[in-house]
Design a protein that fits this description.
With about 180 residues, the chain is of the alpha+beta class. The protein has two domains: about 35 residues; about 140 residues, SH3 type barrels (Roll), CATH 2.30.30. Helix content is about 30%, strand content about 35%.
């Protein structure tokens, strides 16, 4: 009887040790997998969860992730229409981001670069609010270069460019967000 208890105790210790080894290996694999995740992967994993992008101390943009491209994310509003395009370089914090991720080939991935998206907005002649490092500018994107974009500014309250509207060049690194009206 005594030997049976000793063997039961040894079996229990062995089973416990095996469980601990499996748990440790599993935790190591999880950490290794998470180390490979990019912001792009995590944003695609957000699904329908609303996220808030903190671009600086006072500037926040919220919505659901509509598209994720090479170096940018598009957020949608309640109707599902694109409401903002934000370069990854402008994002300081992300609130509401789940820990799961989607593989790169899944639906929200866009092959377009930021310049292509900005040119698409320019073709649509959409009125935009550009949030930049120097402040907000309202107008229509008229041209997109390799590292700049030109905007025809609109006087407050105007929906069309008027005589005297100025052409403003914004450097892409200074761009924080493009908010579509």
């Amino acid at each position: 009887m005594r030997f049976e208890r000793i063997f039961d105790d040894l079996e229990g210790q062995f089973a416990h040790q095996q469980q601990e080894e499996v748990r440790a290996v599993s935790e190591d694999l999880t950490r290794a997998e998470q180390a490979q995740l990019t912001l792009s992967d995590r944003l695609r994993g957000a699904g329908t969860h609303p996220v808030t992008l903190h671009l600086d101390a006072a500037l926040r943009v919220g919505g659901t992730v509509a598209e994720v491209g090479q170096g940018w994310v598009a957020l949608a509003g309640e109707g599902g229409a694109r409401k903002a395009v934000v370069p990854f370089a402008a994002i300081a914090l992300v609130e509401g981001l789940p820990s799961r991720a989607r593989p790169a080939e899944e639906s929200l991935r866009s092959p377009l670069g930021l310049g292509s998206v900005l040119r698409e907005i320019a073709r649509d002649r959409s009125v935009v609010h550009l949030e930049t490092a120097a402040g907000r500018v309202i107008g229509r994107i008229s041209a997109v270069g390799a590292d700049t974009l030109d905007l025809r500014s609109l006087p407050t309250g105007e929906s069309m460019a008027v005589p005297g509207s100025s052409r403003i060049t914004v450097t892409i690194p200074a761009l924080r967000a493009v908010l579509l009206r």
